[in-house]
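Appendix B. One record, verbatim.
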Amino acid sequence: MDDPVNTYPIWSDAARRDPHALYARLRAEAPVYKGTGPVSGNTFWFFTRYEDCVALLKDQRFIKDADKIMTEAQRAFFAPSNPAEAALNRHMLNLDPPDHTRLRSLVHKAFTPRMIENLQDRIEEISAELLDGIEQAGLRQFDLIEQYSYPLPVIVIAELLGIPKDDQDSFRRWTKALLFGQGDPAHAALEAVSYFNSIFSQRKADPRDDLISGLLAVEEAGDKLDHQELLSMIFLLLVAGHETTVNLITTGMLTLMQHPAQMERLIAEPTLIRTAVEEILRYHGPVENTLSRWSAEDTDFKGKTIRRGDVVLASLMSANRDEAVFENADTFDITRDPNRHIAFGGGIHYCLGAPLARLEGTIAINALLRRLPRLKLAVPAESLKWNDQITLRGLQALPVMRT
């Protein structure tokens, strides 16, 4: 007998506002849950328990390169609307070995842990400059995203890539259009590709000490990073390098403001920031569900028959509240240690930028609490608007006030 479909309203407005209650029900009642995408009509399987998500992230029966197994109908629906969109999607998060292995190895040559460590002083400078701007403008009430948690990671990744400051505002527009449908995705893709092609030409003529020049040097050395892969990789680093960190800082501050005793303790003991950031990632991380994996064959998993071509998702947000793994899973505790969350995924597609996100979150939150320790929500929490998609979990705005 086929599994019932769409028993749990995961795409509903209520679940988009607060998915945690629904995920708790799924873990208890339907840990491997079958739904149908409201737009695509494709079958989606949501894995919601920690153990199952960890297994999924390592299971080679579930692949990233959908082109290998798509039906003609799926191919027609999911096909990019123009070559520019296609060019931005051939990155390592959408590929399997050996292509994934090759691309990750090439990027890792330019995106090293030592390079991330060397960014600490600059991140502290950017954080201080943004907070100076808030104080000098006399802002008593402001949107934390607009004034702080968006510009900080954008400046960091833009400088890392070698993008001029005057061009950085375009990133947000492209991201909103391509990830959240706020604008024209096809036009945004064309703009992004045209822009990066121009930057590539400049860096080939005049290499600099930046990530784009480093990746171009890898390409020129004949390591098979072709032009389309280079475009996709830069766009991935740009989007993944700022959007998730925006959400980490923003949701982290929201969570602290909603748990004033924990916030006061972190202000009093700033050395707790490391475990506090890990707990923010676990309790309300920036990624709700992984990007799509596709079942390469009819597969049996925990008694469920997942058909070839079905999409499977690891619900990281749900896994990180799994009561079987985390004691008092719904309690926010900045001293929680150990903390085996999977906010950055797992397996071969584990987030390459995790060290940078952790560093930015640690510096940004501690600096904010040190300079503006009495921040409070300026609106009722229930009025906050969240992005309505099921992958990236983030607020559209976070109005706060200084008291």
